[in-house]
């Protein structure tokens, strides 16, 4: 890796690169140039080369990129060449949806346990996993050496859950609670605000509408 610090913008683009490379592999494509990749993914060829050069480049002049080789390199950069044990805290509607979704993710992500405070849900099965008592979360995380905690509780409980997970030794937290939380520096944190994505969509829709209105006005002037 050339630089010790890689921007979040670059890191956020890597999963998209990987997704497109996987689709190319399925189609039997063996190599691709940055220009061809640009027309497919929507980023400029220069942007693609700059992003990948942060990690060594991986391309060959006059050949381009090996689709399989580049996908494997990105897997290694993202840490997808390892296995991660996870627990989900919160077995309500959101927790159930995230559990079902996470079970479909191919790779080294394994849900080892689901935890809940609601006594009516404890003992039930969710996607083949027994829902356990939240009071046992610390012991379970320590014993099973859990890597990632997935928070699917209300905003009032999120920080408390995060504190317990960090105390128990998780290395990362994936939170769907509608609130920002704090974790120690040695714990990675990814907070998903679904409303942010919806608000971004609303902006883009209105921006397209405004652009069309501006274009129509310009056409009338001509």
- Assembly type of the chains comes to single chain
Distance between the termini: 53 Å
Strand order of the largest sheet: 5-6-4-3-7-8-9
Q: Low-confidence spans: pLDDT under 50, at least 5 residues?
A: none
Q: Structural class of the secondary elements? A: alpha/beta
Mean pLDDT: 91
Number of strands: 9
Percentage of residues in DSSP E strands: 15-25%
The largest β sheet comes out as:
7 strands, mixed
Query: What shape does the CA trace take?
Result: globular
State the helix count.
8
What string, H for helix and E for strand, traces the elements in order? HEHHEHEHEEEHEHEEH
Evaluate the radius of gyration.
22 Å
Residues in helices, as a percent range: 40-55%
Q: Could you give a short description of this structure?
A:
By secondary structure, the protein is of the alpha/beta class. The chain has helices at about 10-25, 35-40, 45-55, 65-80, 95-105, 135-145, 155-170, 195-220, and strands spanning about 30, 65, 85-90, 110-115, 125, 130-135, 150, 170-175, 190.
Sum up the structure in keywords.
222 residues; alpha/beta; 8 helices; 9 strands; two-stranded antiparallel ribbon; seven-stranded mixed beta sheet
Can you characterise this structure?
The chain is an alpha/beta fold. It is built from eight helices and nine strands. The chain has helices spanning 8-26, 34-41, 45-53, 67-78, 93-104, 137-144, 155-168, 194-221; strands spanning 31-32, 65-66, 84-89, 109-116, 125-126, 129-133, 148-151, 172-175, 188-191. Helix 1 (8-26) packs across helix 4 (67-78). The longest helix is centred in the C-terminal third of the chain and has 28 residues, at 194-221. The termini are far apart.
